[in-house]
Amino acid sequence: MSSEARTQRHYWLPIPAPDGSGGTRHAFRGHRWLGTPTETAICERGTPMARPSEMDWICFPTCRTCDETLKGEQP
Q1: How far apart are the first and last CA of the chain?
Q2: Most buried among 19, 20, 47, 59, using CB within 10 Å?
Q3: Whole-angstrom Cα distance, residue 26 to residue 1?
Q4: What percent of the chain has pLDDT over 90?
Q5: C-alpha span between 1 and 24 (Å, rounded)
Q6: Facing residues of 33 across strands?
């Protein structure tokens, strides 16, 4: 995948808060999560990665910074 195509693609993943008090859905560059232990979200937050549960998808709110950044990148 070209670097241009990689910057145009993103995926969302719910990330639990380190203290266990919920979490947030963040966006990441690329097509999908490749099982790496950590990634940097579009909002520039470094996050530990883990396979989310269905409840994480339902309960965790969307990161507003990731969402606004992606909206701002649209042509």
Answers
A1: 21
A2: 47
A3: 22
A4: 75
A5: 28
A6: none
